[in-house]
Request: fold
Amino acid sequence: MKSSKLCMVFSRNRIIILTMLLFTWGCASMQPPGGGPEDKEAPEVIWTIPTNDSVRVSRKVDIFVAFSEKMNHETVENAVYLSPHPAGEIKFSWKKNVMKIELEDSLESNKTFVVTLGTDGKDIHANALQQAYSFAFSTGDSIDRGSINGRVIAENTRGISVWSYRLAGQANEDSLVYIKRADYITQVGAGGKFKLSYLSPGKYRVYAIADLDADYLYTPSSDYIGLPFKDITVEPAKLEATGSDFMIFQEDTAKFALQTVVPVDRSLVVVGFSKSLMTELYFETGSRFDGLKNHFRMTDSASGTDIPIRDVYLNPVKLNEIKILTVPRNIQRRHVLSVRNLFSQSGEEIVSGDMSFEGGDDSSNIKIDMEMFSPQTKDGMILANDGFGFRFSNGVHRASFEKYFQMRDSLGNQVNGLFTWAHSAQVEFQPAVLLQSRMAYTIDIIADSVMDWSGKVFGDTVIKYFVNSFKTDSLGFVSGIVKDDDSVKAGTYYITCRNLNRGMRDHTVRIDKTGVFNLNYLVPGRYSVVAFKDEDGNGIYSYGRVSPIIFSERFTSYADTVVIRPNWETSNILLRFKD
Reply:
Protein backbone atom coordinates (compact mmCIF):
# COMPACT_ATOMS: atom_id res chain seq x y z
CA MET A 1 0.00 0.00 0.00
CA LYS A 2 1.27 3.49 -0.80
CA SER A 3 2.28 5.64 2.20
CA SER A 4 -0.22 8.28 3.18
CA LYS A 5 0.40 11.82 1.97
CA LEU A 6 -1.35 13.30 5.04
CA CYS A 7 2.04 14.00 6.57
CA MET A 8 2.25 17.02 4.27
CA VAL A 9 -0.21 18.85 6.55
CA PHE A 10 2.24 18.74 9.45
CA SER A 11 4.21 21.86 10.17
CA ARG A 12 7.78 21.89 8.91
CA ASN A 13 9.13 21.44 12.45
CA ARG A 14 7.02 18.35 13.05
CA ILE A 15 8.22 16.81 9.77
CA ILE A 16 11.81 17.39 10.84
CA ILE A 17 11.11 15.78 14.23
CA LEU A 18 9.43 12.82 12.51
CA THR A 19 12.39 12.34 10.18
CA MET A 20 14.89 12.54 13.04
CA LEU A 21 12.93 9.84 14.84
CA LEU A 22 13.04 7.66 11.74
CA PHE A 23 16.81 7.97 11.54
CA THR A 24 17.35 7.56 15.28
CA TRP A 25 15.04 4.70 16.17
CA GLY A 26 13.95 3.03 12.96
CA CYS A 27 10.79 0.90 12.70
CA ALA A 28 9.81 -2.63 11.90
CA SER A 29 11.53 -3.78 8.70
CA MET A 30 9.51 -3.36 5.52
CA GLN A 31 10.02 -6.48 3.42
CA PRO A 32 8.69 -7.22 -0.04
CA PRO A 33 5.46 -9.23 0.13
CA GLY A 34 5.83 -12.96 0.06
CA GLY A 35 2.94 -13.60 -2.27
CA GLY A 36 0.19 -11.98 -4.27
CA PRO A 37 0.39 -10.17 -7.60
CA GLU A 38 3.67 -8.68 -8.76
CA ASP A 39 4.14 -5.00 -7.89
CA LYS A 40 4.36 -3.05 -11.15
CA GLU A 41 3.38 0.35 -9.78
CA ALA A 42 5.96 3.10 -10.21
CA PRO A 43 7.33 4.61 -6.97
CA GLU A 44 6.69 8.24 -6.05
CA VAL A 45 8.31 10.93 -3.94
CA ILE A 46 5.86 11.77 -1.13
CA TRP A 47 7.74 14.45 0.80
CA THR A 48 11.05 16.23 0.99
CA ILE A 49 13.06 18.32 3.41
CA PRO A 50 13.58 21.13 2.63
CA THR A 51 10.13 21.36 1.10
CA ASN A 52 9.85 22.66 -2.44
CA ASP A 53 10.27 26.44 -2.75
CA SER A 54 11.79 26.82 0.73
CA VAL A 55 13.83 30.01 1.18
CA ARG A 56 16.47 31.12 3.69
CA VAL A 57 17.57 27.51 4.09
CA SER A 58 20.70 26.90 6.15
CA ARG A 59 23.90 26.54 4.14
CA LYS A 60 24.65 23.41 6.21
CA VAL A 61 21.29 21.76 5.50
CA ASP A 62 20.79 17.98 5.36
CA ILE A 63 18.37 16.88 2.64
CA PHE A 64 15.70 14.18 3.08
CA VAL A 65 13.58 12.45 0.44
CA ALA A 66 10.75 10.06 1.33
CA PHE A 67 9.44 7.53 -1.19
CA SER A 68 6.12 5.74 -1.41
CA GLU A 69 7.82 2.35 -1.15
CA LYS A 70 11.11 0.63 -0.41
CA MET A 71 13.76 1.62 -2.94
CA ASN A 72 16.84 0.07 -4.48
CA HIS A 73 19.37 2.32 -2.75
CA GLU A 74 22.14 2.13 -5.33
CA THR A 75 19.92 3.01 -8.30
CA VAL A 76 18.42 5.99 -6.47
CA GLU A 77 21.75 7.36 -5.24
CA ASN A 78 23.17 7.14 -8.77
CA ALA A 79 20.16 9.10 -10.04
CA VAL A 80 20.46 12.03 -7.60
CA TYR A 81 21.56 15.34 -9.11
CA LEU A 82 22.13 18.44 -6.98
CA SER A 83 22.42 21.57 -9.12
CA PRO A 84 24.54 23.61 -9.03
CA HIS A 85 26.79 20.81 -7.82
CA PRO A 86 28.25 21.68 -4.38
CA ALA A 87 31.89 21.40 -3.42
CA GLY A 88 32.95 18.44 -1.32
CA GLU A 89 31.65 14.91 -0.95
CA ILE A 90 27.98 13.91 -0.89
CA LYS A 91 27.04 11.07 1.48
CA PHE A 92 23.85 8.98 1.47
CA SER A 93 22.17 7.02 4.24
CA TRP A 94 18.76 5.34 4.53
CA LYS A 95 16.08 4.49 7.04
CA LYS A 96 13.20 2.55 5.53
CA ASN A 97 11.84 4.58 2.61
CA VAL A 98 13.67 7.79 3.52
CA MET A 99 16.98 8.83 1.99
CA LYS A 100 19.26 11.31 3.74
CA ILE A 101 21.75 13.41 1.75
CA GLU A 102 24.62 14.92 3.73
CA LEU A 103 26.86 17.60 2.24
CA GLU A 104 30.51 17.83 3.28
CA ASP A 105 30.79 21.57 2.59
CA SER A 106 28.42 24.46 3.13
CA LEU A 107 26.25 25.61 0.23
CA GLU A 108 26.77 28.98 -1.43
CA SER A 109 24.78 31.85 -0.02
CA ASN A 110 21.91 33.53 -1.89
CA LYS A 111 21.65 30.66 -4.36
CA THR A 112 18.80 28.49 -5.67
CA PHE A 113 19.58 24.76 -5.52
CA VAL A 114 17.68 22.03 -7.35
CA VAL A 115 17.54 18.38 -6.27
CA THR A 116 16.57 16.08 -9.13
CA LEU A 117 15.78 12.39 -8.81
CA GLY A 118 16.25 10.81 -12.23
CA THR A 119 14.28 8.05 -13.88
CA ASP A 120 17.09 5.54 -13.29
CA GLY A 121 15.96 5.36 -9.66
CA LYS A 122 14.02 2.15 -8.99
CA ASP A 123 12.15 0.44 -6.19
CA ILE A 124 13.03 -3.05 -4.94
CA HIS A 125 10.75 -4.53 -7.63
CA ALA A 126 12.74 -2.73 -10.37
CA ASN A 127 9.95 -0.25 -11.10
CA ALA A 128 11.47 3.09 -12.12
CA LEU A 129 10.24 6.60 -11.44
CA GLN A 130 8.03 7.55 -14.38
CA GLN A 131 9.33 11.11 -14.57
CA ALA A 132 12.33 12.90 -13.12
CA TYR A 133 11.29 14.59 -9.86
CA SER A 134 12.75 17.98 -8.92
CA PHE A 135 12.38 20.26 -5.92
CA ALA A 136 14.13 23.53 -5.19
CA PHE A 137 15.20 25.56 -2.19
CA SER A 138 17.22 28.73 -1.74
CA THR A 139 19.84 29.88 0.73
CA GLY A 140 18.65 33.40 -0.09
CA ASP A 141 15.31 35.19 -0.05
CA SER A 142 13.90 34.03 -3.41
CA ILE A 143 13.69 31.07 -5.81
CA ASP A 144 14.80 31.28 -9.44
CA ARG A 145 11.91 30.36 -11.78
CA GLY A 146 13.47 29.86 -15.21
CA SER A 147 13.01 26.60 -17.12
CA ILE A 148 14.02 24.87 -20.34
CA ASN A 149 12.00 21.97 -21.69
CA GLY A 150 12.05 19.73 -24.74
CA ARG A 151 12.40 16.16 -25.97
CA VAL A 152 15.12 13.67 -26.78
CA ILE A 153 14.41 11.53 -29.85
CA ALA A 154 16.00 8.07 -29.61
CA GLU A 155 14.92 4.43 -29.85
CA ASN A 156 15.62 4.06 -26.12
CA THR A 157 15.85 7.14 -23.90
CA ARG A 158 16.43 5.23 -20.66
CA GLY A 159 19.49 6.61 -18.89
CA ILE A 160 19.82 9.71 -21.06
CA SER A 161 20.36 12.91 -19.09
CA VAL A 162 20.22 16.57 -20.06
CA TRP A 163 23.09 18.85 -19.06
CA SER A 164 22.96 22.63 -18.96
CA TYR A 165 25.92 25.02 -18.66
CA ARG A 166 25.52 28.67 -17.72
CA LEU A 167 27.47 30.75 -20.25
CA ALA A 168 29.21 33.92 -19.18
CA GLY A 169 31.47 34.73 -22.11
CA GLN A 170 34.16 32.21 -21.13
CA ALA A 171 36.89 31.59 -23.69
CA ASN A 172 36.49 27.82 -23.27
CA GLU A 173 32.68 27.58 -23.56
CA ASP A 174 32.88 24.92 -26.28
CA SER A 175 35.10 22.76 -24.04
CA LEU A 176 33.10 22.91 -20.80
CA VAL A 177 31.31 19.63 -21.51
CA TYR A 178 34.70 17.84 -21.54
CA ILE A 179 36.13 19.31 -18.34
CA LYS A 180 33.35 20.46 -16.02
CA ARG A 181 30.29 18.88 -14.47
CA ALA A 182 27.17 20.62 -15.77
CA ASP A 183 25.59 23.37 -13.69
CA TYR A 184 22.16 21.73 -14.02
CA ILE A 185 21.32 18.09 -14.74
CA THR A 186 18.07 16.19 -15.17
CA GLN A 187 17.03 12.90 -16.75
CA VAL A 188 14.52 12.38 -19.52
CA GLY A 189 11.21 10.78 -18.68
CA ALA A 190 8.42 9.05 -20.59
CA GLY A 191 8.42 9.85 -24.28
CA GLY A 192 11.88 11.40 -24.02
CA LYS A 193 10.50 14.58 -22.42
CA PHE A 194 12.58 16.64 -20.00
CA LYS A 195 12.41 19.88 -18.02
CA LEU A 196 15.25 21.81 -16.43
CA SER A 197 13.64 23.89 -13.69
CA TYR A 198 14.54 26.71 -11.29
CA LEU A 199 17.12 28.34 -13.54
CA SER A 200 18.30 31.89 -13.02
CA PRO A 201 17.97 34.28 -15.99
CA GLY A 202 20.92 33.98 -18.36
CA LYS A 203 22.34 32.20 -21.39
CA TYR A 204 22.68 28.40 -21.38
CA ARG A 205 24.13 25.69 -23.56
CA VAL A 206 22.18 22.46 -23.25
CA TYR A 207 23.23 18.95 -24.28
CA ALA A 208 21.53 15.56 -24.19
CA ILE A 209 24.04 12.96 -22.97
CA ALA A 210 24.21 9.19 -22.64
CA ASP A 211 27.02 9.27 -20.07
CA LEU A 212 28.01 5.62 -20.40
CA ASP A 213 31.12 5.91 -18.23
CA ALA A 214 29.13 7.83 -15.56
CA ASP A 215 31.81 10.44 -14.89
CA TYR A 216 29.64 13.51 -15.57
CA LEU A 217 32.02 14.55 -18.35
CA TYR A 218 31.59 14.06 -22.09
CA THR A 219 33.93 11.38 -23.47
CA PRO A 220 33.61 11.15 -27.28
CA SER A 221 35.02 7.62 -27.45
CA SER A 222 32.33 6.17 -25.18
CA ASP A 223 29.44 8.61 -24.72
CA TYR A 224 26.57 9.62 -27.00
CA ILE A 225 25.52 13.25 -27.31
CA GLY A 226 22.78 15.44 -28.75
CA LEU A 227 23.59 19.05 -29.67
CA PRO A 228 21.24 22.05 -29.61
CA PHE A 229 20.38 24.12 -32.66
CA LYS A 230 21.26 27.27 -30.68
CA ASP A 231 22.07 28.47 -27.17
CA ILE A 232 19.06 29.18 -24.96
CA THR A 233 18.42 32.46 -23.16
CA VAL A 234 16.17 32.46 -20.09
CA GLU A 235 14.86 36.00 -19.86
CA PRO A 236 13.26 37.71 -16.83
CA ALA A 237 10.24 38.56 -18.96
CA LYS A 238 10.03 35.05 -20.45
CA LEU A 239 11.25 32.50 -17.96
CA GLU A 240 10.11 29.38 -19.85
CA ALA A 241 12.14 28.34 -22.93
CA THR A 242 10.55 25.61 -25.07
CA GLY A 243 11.47 23.61 -28.15
CA SER A 244 14.90 22.34 -27.10
CA ASP A 245 14.79 18.99 -28.89
CA PHE A 246 17.71 16.64 -29.44
CA MET A 247 18.80 13.68 -31.54
CA ILE A 248 21.51 11.48 -29.99
CA PHE A 249 24.59 10.38 -31.93
CA GLN A 250 28.15 9.21 -31.31
CA GLU A 251 30.58 11.82 -32.52
CA ASP A 252 33.25 10.76 -34.99
CA THR A 253 36.36 12.65 -33.94
CA ALA A 254 38.68 11.13 -36.56
CA LYS A 255 40.26 13.54 -39.04
CA PHE A 256 38.97 13.42 -42.61
CA ALA A 257 41.93 12.20 -44.63
CA LEU A 258 43.09 10.27 -47.67
CA GLN A 259 44.03 6.81 -46.39
CA THR A 260 44.66 4.32 -49.20
CA VAL A 261 45.22 4.15 -52.96
CA VAL A 262 44.95 0.63 -54.37
CA PRO A 263 45.50 -0.05 -58.10
CA VAL A 264 43.23 -2.91 -59.18
CA ASP A 265 44.28 -3.21 -62.81
CA ARG A 266 45.66 -1.03 -65.62
CA SER A 267 42.62 1.27 -65.53
CA LEU A 268 40.91 1.01 -62.14
CA VAL A 269 42.17 2.56 -58.88
CA VAL A 270 40.28 2.35 -55.57
CA VAL A 271 40.79 5.27 -53.17
CA GLY A 272 39.89 5.04 -49.46
CA PHE A 273 39.11 7.88 -47.03
CA SER A 274 38.69 7.98 -43.27
CA LYS A 275 35.08 9.19 -43.54
CA SER A 276 32.13 9.02 -45.92
CA LEU A 277 31.94 11.69 -48.61
CA MET A 278 29.12 14.21 -48.99
CA THR A 279 26.61 12.54 -51.31
CA GLU A 280 24.69 15.76 -51.97
CA LEU A 281 27.83 17.17 -53.60
CA TYR A 282 29.08 14.08 -55.39
CA PHE A 283 25.84 12.41 -56.49
CA GLU A 284 24.58 13.85 -59.77
CA THR A 285 21.11 13.92 -58.21
CA GLY A 286 22.29 16.36 -55.53
CA SER A 287 21.14 19.97 -55.61
CA ARG A 288 24.78 21.14 -55.33
CA PHE A 289 26.40 18.56 -57.62
CA ASP A 290 30.15 19.02 -58.07
CA GLY A 291 31.74 16.35 -60.27
CA LEU A 292 34.37 14.26 -58.52
CA LYS A 293 36.65 14.43 -61.57
CA ASN A 294 37.22 18.09 -60.69
CA HIS A 295 38.98 17.09 -57.47
CA PHE A 296 41.51 14.47 -58.64
CA ARG A 297 44.66 14.47 -60.70
CA MET A 298 46.90 11.51 -61.56
CA THR A 299 50.45 11.88 -62.84
CA ASP A 300 53.45 9.75 -63.71
CA SER A 301 55.81 10.38 -60.78
CA ALA A 302 58.94 10.42 -62.96
CA SER A 303 57.85 12.46 -65.95
CA GLY A 304 55.02 14.45 -64.39
CA THR A 305 52.80 13.51 -67.33
CA ASP A 306 49.07 13.57 -66.61
CA ILE A 307 47.19 10.27 -66.76
CA PRO A 308 43.77 11.09 -68.28
CA ILE A 309 40.88 10.26 -65.93
CA ARG A 310 37.76 8.94 -67.66
CA ASP A 311 35.40 8.60 -64.69
CA VAL A 312 35.29 9.00 -60.90
CA TYR A 313 32.43 7.71 -58.76
CA LEU A 314 31.58 6.75 -55.20
CA ASN A 315 31.43 3.10 -54.21
CA PRO A 316 27.64 2.85 -53.70
CA VAL A 317 27.98 0.50 -50.71
CA LYS A 318 31.05 2.14 -49.10
CA LEU A 319 30.66 5.90 -49.23
CA ASN A 320 34.19 6.43 -47.88
CA GLU A 321 35.57 4.82 -51.05
CA ILE A 322 35.99 6.24 -54.55
CA LYS A 323 36.74 4.41 -57.78
CA ILE A 324 38.80 6.13 -60.46
CA LEU A 325 38.86 4.92 -64.06
CA THR A 326 41.79 6.06 -66.20
CA VAL A 327 43.14 5.31 -69.63
CA PRO A 328 45.36 2.20 -69.45
CA ARG A 329 48.45 2.88 -67.31
CA ASN A 330 51.89 1.30 -67.32
CA ILE A 331 51.65 -0.75 -64.12
CA GLN A 332 55.44 -0.98 -63.89
CA ARG A 333 55.72 2.76 -63.21
CA ARG A 334 54.97 4.75 -60.05
CA HIS A 335 52.11 7.22 -60.14
CA VAL A 336 50.88 9.99 -57.85
CA LEU A 337 47.23 10.67 -57.02
CA SER A 338 46.41 14.21 -55.86
CA VAL A 339 43.13 15.24 -54.23
CA ARG A 340 41.92 18.81 -53.68
CA ASN A 341 38.99 20.43 -51.83
CA LEU A 342 37.00 17.30 -51.06
CA PHE A 343 34.26 17.31 -48.40
CA SER A 344 33.10 14.63 -45.97
CA GLN A 345 29.45 14.03 -45.18
CA SER A 346 29.88 16.01 -41.96
CA GLY A 347 31.35 18.99 -43.83
CA GLU A 348 35.07 18.58 -43.14
CA GLU A 349 37.43 19.39 -46.00
CA ILE A 350 40.59 17.87 -47.38
CA VAL A 351 42.26 20.98 -48.77
CA SER A 352 45.00 18.93 -50.41
CA GLY A 353 46.50 15.46 -50.25
CA ASP A 354 48.85 13.29 -52.30
CA MET A 355 49.71 9.60 -52.30
CA SER A 356 51.95 7.57 -54.61
CA PHE A 357 51.23 4.03 -55.79
CA GLU A 358 52.31 1.44 -58.32
CA GLY A 359 51.29 -1.98 -59.56
CA GLY A 360 47.96 -3.57 -60.40
CA ASP A 361 46.80 -6.71 -62.17
CA ASP A 362 47.63 -6.66 -65.87
CA SER A 363 44.35 -8.45 -66.69
CA SER A 364 41.79 -8.06 -63.92
CA ASN A 365 39.20 -10.84 -63.63
CA ILE A 366 37.08 -9.18 -60.95
CA LYS A 367 33.44 -10.22 -61.18
CA ILE A 368 30.93 -7.46 -61.85
CA ASP A 369 28.00 -7.49 -59.42
CA MET A 370 24.62 -5.79 -59.55
CA GLU A 371 21.81 -5.50 -57.02
CA MET A 372 18.39 -3.88 -56.83
CA PHE A 373 18.65 -1.97 -53.53
CA SER A 374 15.34 -0.12 -53.59
CA PRO A 375 12.51 -0.21 -52.86
CA GLN A 376 12.94 -2.06 -49.58
CA THR A 377 10.27 -4.67 -50.14
CA LYS A 378 8.68 -7.25 -47.91
CA ASP A 379 7.87 -10.41 -49.86
CA GLY A 380 8.40 -8.50 -53.11
CA MET A 381 5.48 -6.13 -52.47
CA ILE A 382 5.81 -2.64 -53.94
CA LEU A 383 3.85 0.61 -53.83
CA ALA A 384 2.17 2.42 -56.71
CA ASN A 385 4.69 5.27 -56.70
CA ASP A 386 7.86 3.23 -56.15
CA GLY A 387 11.04 3.71 -58.13
CA PHE A 388 13.68 1.00 -58.57
CA GLY A 389 17.32 1.58 -57.63
CA PHE A 390 20.26 -0.46 -58.91
CA ARG A 391 23.91 -0.51 -57.80
CA PHE A 392 26.93 -1.94 -59.61
CA SER A 393 30.36 -2.96 -58.38
CA ASN A 394 31.92 -1.17 -61.39
CA GLY A 395 30.81 1.85 -63.36
CA VAL A 396 28.74 0.91 -66.40
CA HIS A 397 28.08 2.32 -69.84
CA ARG A 398 24.83 4.07 -69.04
CA ALA A 399 23.37 3.79 -72.52
CA SER A 400 23.85 0.01 -72.57
CA PHE A 401 22.01 -0.42 -69.25
CA GLU A 402 19.10 1.77 -70.31
CA LYS A 403 18.83 0.03 -73.68
CA TYR A 404 18.74 -3.49 -72.25
CA PHE A 405 16.48 -2.78 -69.27
CA GLN A 406 12.83 -3.78 -69.55
CA MET A 407 9.91 -3.68 -67.11
CA ARG A 408 6.58 -5.32 -68.01
CA ASP A 409 3.34 -6.11 -66.22
CA SER A 410 1.79 -9.58 -66.17
CA LEU A 411 -0.25 -8.70 -69.29
CA GLY A 412 2.93 -8.00 -71.25
CA ASN A 413 2.57 -4.23 -71.29
CA GLN A 414 5.89 -2.38 -71.17
CA VAL A 415 6.43 0.14 -68.37
CA ASN A 416 8.17 3.29 -69.59
CA GLY A 417 10.00 5.63 -67.28
CA LEU A 418 12.96 7.86 -66.54
CA PHE A 419 16.50 6.81 -65.59
CA THR A 420 18.28 9.05 -63.05
CA TRP A 421 21.97 8.37 -62.48
CA ALA A 422 23.62 9.29 -59.18
CA HIS A 423 26.89 8.26 -60.85
CA SER A 424 28.12 5.51 -63.14
CA ALA A 425 27.56 2.80 -60.52
CA GLN A 426 24.07 3.76 -59.26
CA VAL A 427 20.82 4.47 -61.09
CA GLU A 428 17.11 4.73 -60.35
CA PHE A 429 14.29 3.87 -62.76
CA GLN A 430 11.08 5.78 -62.03
CA PRO A 431 7.97 4.59 -63.93
CA ALA A 432 6.26 7.39 -65.86
CA VAL A 433 2.85 6.53 -64.40
CA LEU A 434 1.63 5.00 -61.15
CA LEU A 435 1.81 1.22 -61.06
CA GLN A 436 -1.48 -0.62 -61.28
CA SER A 437 -3.19 -2.02 -58.20
CA ARG A 438 -2.57 -5.72 -57.48
CA MET A 439 -0.42 -6.28 -60.54
CA ALA A 440 2.62 -8.53 -61.00
CA TYR A 441 5.66 -6.98 -62.69
CA THR A 442 8.88 -8.40 -64.10
CA ILE A 443 12.14 -6.49 -64.60
CA ASP A 444 14.52 -8.02 -67.17
CA ILE A 445 18.14 -6.92 -67.62
CA ILE A 446 19.96 -8.55 -70.54
CA ALA A 447 23.26 -9.06 -68.76
CA ASP A 448 25.38 -10.08 -71.77
CA SER A 449 24.73 -6.69 -73.37
CA VAL A 450 25.38 -4.43 -70.36
CA MET A 451 29.06 -3.48 -70.12
CA ASP A 452 31.33 -1.74 -67.67
CA TRP A 453 33.97 0.77 -68.77
CA SER A 454 36.50 -1.96 -69.59
CA GLY A 455 34.07 -3.70 -71.94
CA LYS A 456 33.21 -6.58 -69.61
CA VAL A 457 29.62 -7.76 -69.61
CA PHE A 458 27.60 -8.58 -66.50
CA GLY A 459 26.92 -12.19 -67.41
CA ASP A 460 25.64 -14.51 -70.08
CA THR A 461 21.98 -14.62 -69.09
CA VAL A 462 18.97 -12.43 -68.38
CA ILE A 463 18.76 -11.10 -64.81
CA LYS A 464 15.15 -11.08 -63.59
CA TYR A 465 13.38 -9.40 -60.67
CA PHE A 466 9.77 -10.19 -59.75
CA VAL A 467 7.58 -7.79 -57.77
CA ASN A 468 3.88 -7.36 -57.01
CA SER A 469 2.04 -4.11 -56.30
CA PHE A 470 -0.17 -3.63 -53.26
CA LYS A 471 -3.89 -3.21 -53.65
CA THR A 472 -4.14 0.57 -53.78
CA ASP A 473 -7.18 0.89 -51.52
CA SER A 474 -5.37 -1.13 -48.84
CA LEU A 475 -2.90 1.74 -48.33
CA GLY A 476 -3.17 5.01 -46.41
CA PHE A 477 -2.15 8.64 -46.76
CA VAL A 478 -0.71 11.38 -44.53
CA SER A 479 -0.94 15.13 -45.05
CA GLY A 480 -0.14 18.18 -42.99
CA ILE A 481 1.50 21.57 -42.79
CA VAL A 482 5.07 22.66 -42.02
CA LYS A 483 5.49 26.00 -40.22
CA ASP A 484 8.77 27.70 -39.35
CA ASP A 485 9.25 30.49 -36.81
CA ASP A 486 12.61 31.34 -38.41
CA SER A 487 12.00 33.03 -41.75
CA VAL A 488 15.64 34.10 -42.18
CA LYS A 489 17.68 30.90 -42.57
CA ALA A 490 17.23 29.15 -45.91
CA GLY A 491 16.77 25.41 -46.30
CA THR A 492 14.53 22.66 -47.58
CA TYR A 493 12.39 20.47 -45.34
CA TYR A 494 12.47 16.67 -45.13
CA ILE A 495 9.43 14.97 -43.58
CA THR A 496 9.63 11.28 -42.68
CA CYS A 497 6.98 8.83 -41.53
CA ARG A 498 8.94 6.28 -39.49
CA ASN A 499 7.30 2.88 -39.39
CA LEU A 500 7.29 1.66 -35.79
CA ASN A 501 6.94 -1.96 -36.91
CA ARG A 502 10.46 -3.36 -37.09
CA GLY A 503 11.55 -4.34 -40.58
CA MET A 504 9.02 -2.13 -42.36
CA ARG A 505 10.17 0.82 -44.43
CA ASP A 506 9.99 4.53 -43.74
CA HIS A 507 8.61 7.14 -46.14
CA THR A 508 10.19 10.54 -46.80
CA VAL A 509 9.15 13.58 -48.81
CA ARG A 510 11.05 16.83 -49.42
CA ILE A 511 9.42 20.24 -49.76
CA ASP A 512 11.28 23.40 -50.75
CA LYS A 513 9.34 25.79 -48.52
CA THR A 514 6.88 25.82 -45.64
CA GLY A 515 3.33 24.76 -46.37
CA VAL A 516 1.45 21.60 -47.25
CA PHE A 517 3.11 18.17 -47.46
CA ASN A 518 1.70 14.81 -48.58
CA LEU A 519 2.95 11.26 -48.08
CA ASN A 520 1.03 8.77 -50.19
CA TYR A 521 0.62 4.99 -50.33
CA LEU A 522 1.70 4.03 -46.82
CA VAL A 523 1.30 0.48 -45.55
CA PRO A 524 -1.16 0.45 -42.61
CA GLY A 525 0.53 0.53 -39.22
CA ARG A 526 1.85 2.82 -36.51
CA TYR A 527 4.18 5.64 -37.50
CA SER A 528 6.01 8.56 -35.92
CA VAL A 529 6.35 11.74 -38.00
CA VAL A 530 9.60 13.71 -37.82
CA ALA A 531 11.07 16.50 -39.92
CA PHE A 532 14.30 18.47 -40.21
CA LYS A 533 15.35 21.65 -41.98
CA ASP A 534 18.31 20.97 -44.27
CA GLU A 535 20.20 24.23 -43.81
CA ASP A 536 23.57 23.02 -45.13
CA GLY A 537 22.05 21.39 -48.21
CA ASN A 538 23.70 17.98 -47.83
CA GLY A 539 20.42 16.04 -47.95
CA ILE A 540 20.77 14.45 -44.51
CA TYR A 541 20.26 15.57 -40.93
CA SER A 542 23.43 17.22 -39.59
CA TYR A 543 24.04 16.49 -35.89
CA GLY A 544 26.66 19.23 -35.53
CA ARG A 545 30.01 19.20 -33.75
CA VAL A 546 30.90 19.76 -30.10
CA SER A 547 34.12 21.77 -30.40
CA PRO A 548 34.48 24.15 -32.00
CA ILE A 549 30.71 24.25 -31.78
CA ILE A 550 28.64 23.64 -34.89
CA PHE A 551 25.00 23.64 -33.85
CA SER A 552 22.73 20.88 -35.10
CA GLU A 553 20.13 21.41 -37.76
CA ARG A 554 16.65 22.07 -36.46
CA PHE A 555 14.14 19.28 -36.36
CA THR A 556 10.67 18.74 -35.02
CA SER A 557 8.31 15.85 -34.48
CA TYR A 558 4.60 15.24 -34.21
CA ALA A 559 3.77 14.53 -30.58
CA ASP A 560 1.39 11.60 -31.15
CA THR A 561 1.79 8.25 -32.85
CA VAL A 562 0.04 8.28 -36.23
CA VAL A 563 -2.04 5.21 -37.08
CA ILE A 564 -2.34 4.61 -40.83
CA ARG A 565 -5.56 2.87 -41.91
CA PRO A 566 -6.47 1.37 -45.30
CA ASN A 567 -7.89 3.84 -47.84
CA TRP A 568 -7.86 6.66 -45.27
CA GLU A 569 -6.07 10.01 -45.12
CA THR A 570 -4.63 11.12 -41.79
CA SER A 571 -4.61 14.89 -42.13
CA ASN A 572 -3.90 18.05 -40.14
CA ILE A 573 -0.42 16.96 -39.02
CA LEU A 574 1.24 20.17 -37.82
CA LEU A 575 5.04 20.24 -37.82
CA ARG A 576 6.32 23.49 -36.36
CA PHE A 577 9.96 24.54 -36.23
CA LYS A 578 10.32 26.75 -33.18
CA ASP A 579 12.90 29.49 -33.01
Q: What stands out?
A: The first strand starts at residue 45 and ends at 49. The helical segments are 12-25, 73-77, 176-179, 279-282, 398-403.
